[in-house]
Design brief:
Rossmann fold; globular
Length: 79
């Protein structure tokens, strides 16, 4: 799952945590335009596959997706 941290109804971090707690967690890549310390800390605590700051290089996203696919085939779908 690739999700922006800033969503209309909740944060991408909250959505990730809800899915994880429900047993339907997916390898998650968080993206954001925010670079403040609080956002970095909250994102790091949720332990996503990657945290990408906009604008980011396409190669970084592709690498993160590759990593997510590898982890999902190894049964690590809660990240």
């Amino acid at each position: 799952m690739v999700v922006d941290i800033d969503l209309p109804e909740m944060t991408g971090i909250q959505m990730f945590e809800i899915l994880k707690r429900s047993g339907r967690g997916l390898p998650t890549i968080l993206i954001t335009g925010r670079t403040d310390a609080r956002t970095r800390l909250l994102a790091a605590q949720s332990d996503p596959i990657a945290l990408l700051f906009k604008p980011f290089e396409e190669e970084l996203l592709l690498h993160a997706i590759d990593r997510a696919l590898v982890l999902s085939t190894q049964g690590q779908s809660d990240k």
